[in-house]
Amino acid sequence: MPQLNPNPWFFIMLTSWLTFSLVIQPKLLMFLTTNPPTNKTTPLTKTSPWPWPWS
Fold first, then answer.
1. Residue 27: which pLDDT band, with cuts at 50, 70 and 90?
2. Angle (CA) 43 48 50, round 5°
3. Which of 10, 19, 35, 37 sits CB 3.0–4.6 Å from 6 for a disulfide?
4. What distance in Å separates the CA atoms of residue 37 and residue 40, rounded to the nearest whole number?
5. Can you tell me whether residue 23 is helix, strand or coil?
6. Contacting residues for 24 by C-beta, under 8 A, at least 6 apart
């Protein structure tokens, strides 16, 4: 069964994976910027106890 022969396709897959992970991915990650973290203050909310009908 020739489709089970991994001889040419494994090398192509390995080469393309290494090219992506070692060459293309670092170049793409240089362009992606994340949002800088902001210091937000959380508003203090006053909570009231739940009025249970049986107490």
1. confident
2. 135
3. 10
4. 9
5. helix
6. none
